[in-house]
Amino acid sequence: MKYNFDNHINRLGTDSLKWDFVVRQTGRSDIKPLWVADMDFATPPFVINAIEKRLKNQILGYTLPFDAYFQSIISWLGRRYEISLNSNDIHFIPGVVPGLHHAICSLTEKGDKILIQTPVYHPFHHVIEINERQKVESPLKIVDGRFEMDFNDLEKKLPGCKMMFLCNPHNPGGTVWKPEELKRLALLCKDNGVLVVSDEIHADMTHPGHTHIPFCKICPEADENSITLMAPSKTFNMPGMVTSYCFTHNTALRRKFYSFLDMSDVTCGNAFAYDCLMACYSEEGEEWLNQMLEYVTDNIRAAEDFLSLHCPKIKPMKTEASFLMFLDNRQMPFEDTEQLNRFYIDQAGVYLNEGSMFGNDGKMFMRLNAALPRNELLDSLQQIKQACDNL
Fold first, then answer.
1. pLDDT per residue over 101-126, tens digit each?
2. Bridge partners, residue 33, by sequence
3. Is the pTM of this model over 0.70?
4. At what angle do helices 273-280 and 45-55 cross, to 10 degrees?
């Protein structure tokens, strides 16, 4: 492989949320952080090179999105997903979560109902609550180790909702939605006047053997009734660099949402954002992504095999996209999530995301980040095994 994903990079003392926050929370520097969704791989060299090239301008002034930036997005989405866009369809946003916030503020009113499918990425909950909208939860079903949509529940709860947040692919479950699920959902939302805001930030990390279908591509009803949010930041391990964008083909939605973004003064990214995206959405970016995905999927298969053999009461859901694993601990001998979390920290010496943060349906689950050098992942799994043996 051209790129080395086995290399250890010491992130302690670098103001890293993933590493230094754990030290602050636990008072220990020996706890292995396998939580927040950034990788312990070096950010690709072409991204670093793009930043260095921009620095040679000597002035980090206000920077506008330019035509080559839009063309990079158009080309990337066209090649990978056969999405046809022009530059007017696309708008920069200062992060996917802020994009959710701005969509709520511009397209709904206080008190409006917004549906989410739980358990789901925790900011979905927060953004609805802090903006004084009503959160409507539709629990997902676990079938054969993966999430499926509960359409009986959706048919009851979608009427009266103004908007739905869709996580596509799903975080934390790693589920790649089936075409028939997306189409049925699209028709239900259209019939009930429910606008879909689709978070597709993990789309580019769909594993071999699975196919990501953008919500807007599933049928004309979806295309005319949705806004899609994407970014290269998770895929290319630069989440500290704000490079997100949204797009929609609906002219009326575009006019209302994009004018709100402009009036909110979030039109421009930082001086490096556009160059970094263009570097990622290049042929070199494709090569890095393919190699990273091969490494990460091997990591996940290794973790699944290890847990099946040594910790059979910890059951990972089938991860079909991204580098996150959702671990079912309901067979473990703990009464509540606090006991479970203390087990992983105090006994196993690893720091994971508590499943309850994704909603009540995530209780007794834990989310594990498998994007780290393989020997370090196996060391962490060995610590979990030892802690299980000690039980």
1. 999 999 999 999 999 999 999 999 99
2. 351
3. yes
4. 150
